[in-house]
Amino acid sequence: MTSDSTELQSTRAFWNANPCGVHAAFALQKSQRYAMEPWLPEQLLRIAKLHTSILEVGCGQGVDSIVLCSNMKSGSRYFGIDYSEQSVEVAKANAKSQSSSMNVTPMYATGNAESLDFGDASFQAVYSMGVLHHTARPPVAVSEVLRVLEVGGKAYVVLYRRPSLKVGVAKLLRCFQGALDYIFRTDRCIYHVLRSKSSHSKYFGTMFLECFGVPYMEWYSRDEVSRLFSGFSKVELKTYGPNLGRLNPFGKSETKCGYFWWVEATK
Ligand SMILES: C[S@@+](CC[C@H](N)C(=O)[O-])C[C@H]1O[C@@H](n2cnc3c(N)ncnc32)[C@H](O)[C@@H]1O
Asked: 3-class DSSP state for residue 160?
């Protein structure tokens, strides 16, 4: 077995066991998601109106895909890929349940961000929310995004920001677990012990999962984002979060202390 397939297997196993978002009917998934990320629907509407072919890298359970497909012009094309086949199955079921509200029928497939199964220049836009910092080789994934975009096409990518409080705490806790793993020759020991105490992931919030469970988690300074997207002709950055739901004092707007970069990069 190559090291590549080991990396991908741990990624798939983790996200199959812990799909992003709640296990619930679509309406509840959607309301919880946008209560946590109130800035996101506005961006999705803008992307949907601007483009007639969109690839989503890491579509998860497909909530954003349904918002995009409900607002794209009919005759447009949307494709969502994710490395977790369970997430792809939920995305397909969600899309089926919402088919009457969509202008565009979404297509989904299992796929790897680091090796996109699409030809060069095949999309006007690529959207990816909270995914590329979880791949084993983010620079390879970004080069794939660039490859599949048309000249003048746009990438909309959400990445973890450095410095930021939430990700900083998560990184610290991951270091602590890494030290325990080193001493006891284990693999993500805190995650596995706590995970074995419950058979259902609803008891495990994103923070816990990302602290201890997710195989890869990167964060980026402004300069690092610029280097990562250096193959693009233009890169614009905004900051969103913090993730406080209704308590967010910044409401829907951009903030200076969020833990997400919103990267808009033009090929
Ligand atoms: C934090 S979730 C975000 C999902 C979705 N974009 C959302 O915002 O709900 C990260 C997603 O990235 C997917 N993922 C991780 N590594 C991947 C890879 N190499 N290729 C494709 N998808 C990947 C996971 O399966 C998971 O669904």
From this structure: strand
Domains belonging to the chain, first-starting first, are 3-162+219-266 (3.40.50.150), 166-203 (no CATH)
pLDDT at res. 2: 42
Phi, psi dihedrals of residue 170, rounded to the nearest 5° = -60, -40
> pLDDT value at position 66?
98
124-150 core/surface letters (b: 16 or more CB in 10 A; e: else): bbbbbbbbbbbbbebeebbebbbebbe
> What pLDDT shows up at residue 210?
74
- 148 C-alpha vs ligand 1 centroid, how far in Å? 18
Pocket test residue of 15, 68, 204, 209 for ligand 1, highest count of atoms within 8 A of CB: 15
* SS3 call for 24: coil
Kindly give the number of the ligand 1 atom that is closest to the alpha carbon of 21. 9
- Dist. CA 86 → ligand 1 center (Å): 11
| Residues 155 and 264: beta-carbon distance below 8 Å | yes
Ligand 1 atom with the smallest distance to the CA of 206 is 1
pLDDT of residue 58: 98
Q: 33 C-alpha to center of ligand 1: Å? A: 15
In contact, 225 and 235? CB cutoff 8 Å: yes
Mean pLDDT by 10 residues, the chain (267 residues): 69 88 86 90 97 98 98 98 96 97 98 98 98 97 98 98 90 94 94 73 62 93 98 96 58 70 98
Angle at 187 between CA 181 and CA 189, to 5 degrees: 70
